[in-house]
Design a protein that fits this description.
With 468 residues, the chain is an all-alpha fold. Helices cover 85% and strands 0% of the residues. Helix 2 runs antiparallel to helix 3, helix 7 packs parallel to helix 9 and helix 9 packs parallel to helix 11. The longest helix has 69 residues.
Length: 468
């Protein structure tokens, strides 16, 4: 190999340790204020850019060069983190997939596992629960393989969240949360995720109707987050405590926590957190019957949620905005929001149905097919019928909410049209009688025609209102 090739490779090897240190620093700070680590990401991208795009030697195959592969992997990882933080999930998905491919080829297991963990987050934001769980189980196995405590904790925690939020298997979620809690509390000081784990336990107990336990865990979550948690952990626990206080009608406390939560996420610059915080403010001001303020926060939440195109955010938000618009007597806007809500609701129901079908199909493989086939097939049919019935019910509920307002808007101009039509008929009969009597003066005839023309114009206007 010519000397310039050896020199280039040597320079790459010397700089590789610095790049790995920079990537580790970025990974450690990724959950903090975006402004604090954005520069780290930009530095990592610029320092690895040449390795990805400068093909200085046609005889060198970058796909077979370990250092080049690592540099390309770090470049893609940094780009993915920036895109994810900004809510551009499609771009983030593309970059993180490339990073995984490069790290796998370079046998850099720890970074392969970390990128797989992020890929799970991106899948869950698209409501692809099965794929997300598959990635998190993989990152958990890789974490065990290399004995990385952080990976094990974060993977188990993500699996617990999926069981709570998407699968609604609260007992299973509690089991995973307790495993994570034991690992977090075994650290000294407690692992930064401890506050999030207490938050998850609080929400599980709330869903199971254990309200006292839920409130206790919420307070523990905020306490641990303030002492040991990172910026995002503090944000999520603030939101939890604000919603819990609102549920127990502790309005003053809820307003204080919700305001602190919104300011906190705005300071971090995380789109997902900001959207959730504005949604919490919407619920708070709607509870206080300050509808214009609630609507303003709802619009802010929508602007961030639409940008991210996250069904998890958009479905409940469109529903709340539809109900809020209806309360403000804006029926046209309410109908628009209801249409969006029904679209995402139908997707959610289909996704739930598909997951249940997959689960039932899995049972078919595990159980004796001959004995269980008929029973499980009937479950699939019942699930499909239930899904269709639920979609129909949701659509009817949305339409019924508009019927009273629409009926009022139609009845008034329609009644006017009917009355004026009767008047026109009578005037025409009078005009015919006058014509037959051969009135000597044309003035009465002109007056009658003008009256009929005016009535006809009013009929046209009223019917136009009905048509609109």
């Amino acid at each position: 190999m010519p000397s310039h090739r050896w020199q280039s490779h040597a320079r790459e090897a010397e700089g590789m340790k610095d790049i790995q240190d920079l990537a580790q620093d970025l990974w450690s700070k990724r959950r903090e204020n975006f402004c604090d680590w954005d520069q780290l990401a930009c530095d990592l991208i610029s320092r690895t850019e040449e390795a990805c795009y400068d093909k200085y030697d046609i005889d060198l195959n970058p796909q077979k060069h370990p250092i080049r592969l690592q540099m390309c992997g770090f470049n893609q990882l940094a780009r993915a983190l920036v895109a994810q933080q900004s809510g551009h999930y499609q771009d983030a998905h593309l970059h993180i997939s490339g990073a995984i491919e490069n790290f796998t080829s370079a046998s850099l297991t720890i970074w392969e596992a970390r990128c797989t963990l992020i890929l799970g987050f991106l899948h869950i934001n698209q409501d692809l629960v099965a794929k997300a769980l598959e990635n998190w189980h993989k990152s958990y196995r890789l974490g065990q393989q290399i004995e990385d405590r952080e990976l094990i904790i974060q993977s188990l925690y993500s699996i617990a969240i999926a069981n709570r939020v998407h699968l609604e298997r609260y007992e299973d979620a509690i089991s995973y949360f307790e495993q994570v809690l034991n690992l977090c509390l075994a650290s000294d000081p407690p692992y930064s995720l401890t506050g999030n784990v207490y938050s998850g336990l609080s929400k599980c107990h709330m869903s199971l109707g254990k309200h006292i336990e839920a409130q206790d865990f919420a307070q523990l979550a905020l306490t641990f987050a303030r002492h040991f948690g990172d910026a995002k952990t503090i944000g999520w626990t603030l939101e939890l405590c604000a919603n819990t206080a609102l549920r127990f009608n502790q309005v003053v406390q809820a307003q204080s926590l919700a305001t602190e939560n919104l300011n906190h996420w705005l300071n971090i610059g995380d789109s997902y957190g900001i959207a959730n915080a504005h949604h919490t403010m919407l619920r708070l001001y709607r509870h206080l019957e300050q509808l214009p303020l609630a609507f303003s926060h709802g619009e802010q939440a929508l602007s961030y949620s639409v940008q991210m195109n996250s069904p998890l955010l958009l479905e409940p938000l469109y529903k709340d905005m539809a109900e809020l618009s209806e309360s403000m007597d804006n029926l046209s806007l309410s109908l628009t929001y209801y249409k969006h809500y029904m679209s995402y609701r139908e997707l959610s129901l289909k996704s739930t149905y598909n997951r249940e079908v997959s689960r039932v199909a899995g049972e078919l493989k595990l159980e004796n097919y001959r004995l269980r086939h008929v029973e499980l097939q009937s479950k699939i049919i019942a699930l499909k019928e239930a899904q269709e019935a639920l979609v129909r019910s949701e659509k009817m509920n949305a339409l019924l909410g508009l019927v009273s307002g629409v009926a009022h808007e139609i009845n008034t101009p329609l009644g006017n049209s009917i009355t004026l039509t009767s008047f026109v008929i009578r005037e025409c009969e009078n005009l015919l009688a006058q014509t037959e009597a051969a009135y000597h003066s044309q003035k009465h005839l002109m007056d009658s025609l003008e009256t009929i023309f005016d009535a006809q114009q009013r009929i046209e206007k009223s019917l136009s209102t009905v048509s609109q």
